[in-house]
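Teaching assistant here, posting this on the class forum so everyone can see the example we discussed in section. The complex has two components, and the goal was to see what a joint structure prediction looks like when all of them are supplied at once.
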Amino acid sequence: MTVTSVSRTTDTRTMTFTAEFDAPVSRVWNLWEDPRLLERWWGPPTYPATFEDHDLRPGGRSNYFMTGPEGDTPRGWWKALSVDPPNHFEFENGMAGPDGEPDPAMPSMVVKVTLEERHQGGTRMISEIEYPSTEAMEKFLSMGMEEGMTLAMGQMDALL
Amino acid sequence: MYNHMVVQLAEQTDADRLFHALADATRRDIVTRALAREHSVSDLARSYPMSFAAVQKHVAVLERAELVTKRRKGREQLVRGNIDAVRRTHRLLEEFEAQWLDRLDRFATVLADDLDRRPDPTDDTERRSAR
């Protein structure tokens, strides 16, 4: 896999990731559609995800929880907004309360995934994420983040 | 002080990533200046080869992103950079991006493993139609 580009557009609060895989489109699609495959990569190793429901059809709902090192189980949901297998789908992803119901006080984000066949074979996957407000993003990041994860703040710190 | 910062900023080869919340050079420059001290919009407008309205628009974009705050003083609009927001936004976007890159990394690993286990791609066509 090669991530060929990452771009951010502040005005629309979107982050776009383009990645290429040496696998046919249908196989890449499977990783999103099949909950047993999906849960192997959705959460980080410290917070693996378990999808109790997963329905990648328009209006379909997915319910999942993640299991943290302390046994905490933050819950999340997906709502499929549009689905055009095996090339495109959009879903909303948010956090849920302990009862599994979407928590209206918690943020959600919209993810658009496009799978294209490359001329030379293989698949180009474009994931466009419309991220929430700064405050909302903070909440998202606290869910399933590896503890003590430190990230390079780069030269920005030096500048400031 | 702001000159020092502007120089440093100009030297960044990857200024877009540093001020990831800012899409263009003028806006980055406005934030840098406004972090150093308060500037009036008309003062800022004189610094760029563009109309007052265009600069005002840039300031509005920054204000919406909470990277600057604006206050009125008489007939002037004064702009000040919000250093906490700049730092916080930067950190959050970096983390958010890192989280998705990690996720893509795991995606690739699971995909490779799945291809190893079921090399024949026709498998999943059958599987799908069987649903």
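For the discussion questions: Residues 6 and 17 of chain A are 5 Å apart (CA to CA). The longest helix of chain A spans residues 25-33. Think about how each of these relates to the inputs above.
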